[in-house]
């Protein structure tokens, strides 16, 4: 079919009445579908269920470094867990501290520490009149929520195929000492699925911010979440690049096993330079006498090493891949060539990012809801929930079944078509 913009008003009106009929038919079915949640399906959770059996009352609950995991202590985490999370973070064991069950919690905590105590002897951000943070967009709504919660001004930076627009990042940080950091999801980013190029990573390592306490918040949430075994993306490791160019303290890396083992019951870690880790420990020792070492032990006994983790991730991919492909198949069949939307075809991660015609995203999400399909709120992928072009919609294919996704995608494309025609007619 020709692009909608080339069709006469008459043709568009006819098309619209056809599509409205189809939409009403679907509405009558009273469906309840959800493509808003980036969480693993039950089938994915079932793959790791054996983890519940690796520790029993009969188990030896002493870690290989001699720690009785039932007791208090060991602030950094047991050595075996540190080794595993260090491998996952692609850094040496000495560069890692294990935290609790969520990396988002560690990010919040790190931001909170910067506000109240400052990084490595710098003025706490909370004592400054104004603090700003760079936010590559579209991005992860919870990053933006943390930043907003602390009253930090967010500045949009376009996220390109290669990562954030580095010309803009370099220029902004060099001239404005109030810019204290940037959020990054370097691999299979949420929501566009892009991964940073080597050049982007190297430019981050060489960044020369006016603020000496500037930090790159490097959230590696999807570091091993490949959809295709033969198309795995490799991103240059940033901490090592920073060390090589004499800029070791600029990055703080975050990771967790949330979408590896169980979300909410995984283990999280922070990886950084010695100075940053000492800083984190000085704060953490007031917060806790140690995190959940039994869960650390459970993870280590279950996965053993990175080979165990990779094998497990292949099982996740086998469940996720057909879901991503189903959504792409319906979108391609129904929207291909119409010029009313573009979308990403990620090689990993949890999301597909859809861009509608300008000014249509909110209306599309509302339209889909009429037929019983819940999508992530339009605007959620931008700071303050404000997408300046009102065009980005995050699609999360992980939770529904393939059959549900087929119907959900059809509702979605119908909504896109109807809203786009409305826009073209007005
Ligand atoms: N970071 C990103 C980019 C995410 O997409 C998510 C979850 O969707 C998280 C962090 C949450 O991580 P955790 O479960 O470790 O708190």
Tell me what you see in this structure.
The chain is of the alpha/beta class and 426 residues long. The protein has helices at 9-28, 42-47, 79-89, 103-116, 141-149, 166-175, 198-205, 238-244, 274-287, 293-303, 306-335, 361-370, 402-425; strands spanning 33-34, 96-98, 132-137, 153-160, 163-164, 179-184, 215-219, 251-256, 268-272, 341-343, 352-356, 373-374, 392-395. It has two domains: 4-44 and 310-425, Aspartate Aminotransferase, domain 1, CATH 3.90.1150.10; 61-304, Type I PLP-dependent aspartate aminotransferase-like (Major domain) (Aspartate Aminotransferase, domain 2, 3-Layer(aba) Sandwich), CATH 3.40.640.10. The mean pLDDT is 97. The chain is globular, with a radius of gyration of 23 Å. The strands form three sheets. An eight-stranded mixed sheet has the order 2-9-8-7-6-3-4-5, with helices on both faces. The protein has a three-stranded antiparallel sheet with strand order 10-11-13, with helices on one face. The chain is built from 13 helices and 13 strands. The chain binds pyridoxal-5'-phosphate. Pyridoxal-5'-phosphate is lined by residues 38, 102-104, 140, 185, 190, 219, 221, 256, 258, 263, 268.
From the N-terminal CA to the C-terminal CA, the straight-line distance is 21 Å
Mean of residue pLDDT?
97
The CATH homologous superfamily of the largest domain: Type I PLP-dependent aspartate aminotransferase-like (Major domain)
For this structure, the CATH topology of the largest domain is Aspartate Aminotransferase, domain 2
Q: What small molecules does the structure contain? A: pyridoxal-5'-phosphate
Which structural class fits the helix and strand makeup? Answer: alpha/beta
Note the run of SSEs as H and E.
Answer: HEHHEHEHEEHEHEHEEHHHEEHEEH
Query: Total number of helical segments?
Result: 13
| Oligomer type | single chain
Query: What is the percent of helical residues?
Result: 40-55%
Which overall shape is indicated by the principal axes computed on the Cα atoms? globular
The overall number of domains is 2
Major β-sheet strand ordering = 2-9-8-7-6-3-4-5
The major beta sheet can be summarized as: 8 strands, mixed
By CATH, the architecture of the largest domain is named: 3-Layer(aba) Sandwich
User: Which CATH class of the largest domain?
Assistant: Alpha Beta
